[in-house]
């Protein structure tokens, strides 16, 4: 990978035509964020978009009572901040690094110009937004129809698909996520998540360590809860 990220071939960025990737890379500047640092904050104006080059971040929303709800995780190749740049409204969520992150930052005006000039980029942007809306709708239905164990199981399966590595012990999830964060992602209390993980361990479906999860029987987890 180059310092500009122009040869990144994953996520939204990897789906773009070479000319669109080169245009974004040439107009963007590389920014670095330490673990725990915000890449963008809820309520801010959309002054730029970011493309993650390395590292991962969590997308969160703060409820009125101060509870952090995790909406998703983003990693290399993912686009951040495009909605506020496109519609001109303040940012609707916060994105925070969960490990050191490098990202290409492009000013909002430059990004809008590129989208206007490139039908292929505009089409990919629309597809990316639709995919996220569909995923959001699916999770709303899932939260209303599933109990805590089912919601935790669904997120574990999703993490295997996105961040898992197959080992002799099972699918090791390469994402440093705490039980509090898993609770925020599943719309559950920390106590409910702890009980759900205990139940899954007792069934031999998963094993856990501090901020570490291994799915020992992926098919069994999917068959029982999805």
Automatic annotation (TrEMBL):
InterPro entries: cNMP-bd_dom, cNMP-bd_dom_sf, Env_Response_Regulators, HTH_CRP, RmlC-like_jellyroll, WH-like_DNA-bd_sf, WH_DNA-bd_sf
Domain Cyclic nucleotide-binding: from-to ranges: 12-132
Matches recorded under Pfam families: cNMP_binding, HTH_Crp_2
Assigned GO CC terms: cytosol
Keyword Protein biosynthesis: no
Keywords of the record: DNA-binding, Transcription, Transcription regulation
GO molecular function: DNA binding; DNA-binding transcription factor activity
Ranges for domain HTH crp-type: 146-219
TM annotation in the entry: none
Matches recorded under PANTHER family: CRP FAMILY TRANSCRIPTIONAL REGULATORY PROTEIN, HTH-TYPE TRANSCRIPTIONAL REGULATOR ARCR
The protein's name: Crp/Fnr family transcriptional regulator
Species per Swiss-Prot/TrEMBL record: Nocardioides humilatus
Record lineage: Bacteria, Bacillati, Actinomycetota, Actinomycetes, Propionibacteriales
